[in-house]
Amino acid sequence: MPFFLVKSDITTMKTDAIVNAANTALSMGGGVCGAIFKAAGIEEMERACAPLAPIKTADAVLTAAFNLPSKFVIHTAGPVYRDGSSGEEAQLRACYTNSLALAKQYRCKSIAFPLISSGIYGYPKEDALRVAADAIQGFLQEHEMEVHLVLFETLQPKSALLEQVDRYLDTAYDPTLEQQMFDVGMDAFRDGCVHASQPSLEDMLQTLDEPFCDSLLRLIQQKKKTEVQVYKKANLDRKHFSKIRSGNGYMPGKKTILALAVALELSLEEAQWLLGLAGYSLSHASKFDVIVEYCLTEHIYDIFAINEILFSYDQPLLGS
């Protein structure tokens, strides 16, 4: 971990490797393949690919990235979609696992994929996303790598879950609340509330809660989970989790704390308590907060499923 959906142009990704949705001849094609060849330098990429061609469907080979901001390009040939029962899913899954294995072989710490086969090869986008997510998440259970799945557009999966979130947003989300709370605060300021007597520093220090890192580690023990299970399920990398664990005055951000709440399978009340330790809260003035609140209320603890919903609404994703 972590694993993120990104709406971007894959040729601009500054990861160690990017993946090219190639053809078996490793020649310049259209779509993502054409864009990568052009950005890398057509002549350079053609010379690099020539001795490696041809490849079979789902094979993965590696070249330099030339003029791209990444170090390497991994070329993999996705399946042409026929009817969904001709072995396409296994081939598509192998595109991701073979590419990830090759990236690991070359000690890549980060990689960016396009949604393979979802263009002119005709693989239905929602199905292609499911296969990609399953393959990537399976790899990340055993390995450490930062993985980005780069999409040109925001997908709108027609799922029952998304419809339920839509209905919840209709009833709970109120973007005017932020201004209302600001107005109340300004009224209090004008009324002189800020001059009310404040507790002394000594009083405040005596009532401090335990450090956030201590509370988190205690929760992990109470939930009978390992730290590795938690940071992987929270879509965090090991380095970030170690920083949280060590304390030393570091306080994680709101997205990270909510990711930990999902990984620990906390109730909404428990998650609000954990947020409160860091001075955060959930607000119905924030679409992001309302979506996460719904997922916690409904005990939805699959962080990719939550991030897929957040991505559909152009919201920040949970994790590092």
The number of E-state strands comes to: 6
- Given the helix and strand composition, which structural class is it? alpha/beta
What fraction of residues sit in β-strands?
5-15%
Number of helices: 14
Query: What best-fitting shape do the alpha-carbon axes yield?
Result: globular
> Mind describing the biggest β-sheet?
6 strands, mixed
Describe this structure in words.
Helix 1 (31-40) packs across helix 2, helix 3 (88-105) crosses helix 4 and helix 11 (254-263) packs antiparallel against helix 12 (268-277). Strand 5 (110-114), helix 4 (125-140) and strand 6 form a beta-alpha-beta unit. With 320 residues, the chain is α/β, with parallel strands linked by helices. The chain starts with a strand and ends in an 8-residue tail after the last helix. Helices cover 48% and strands 10% of the residues.
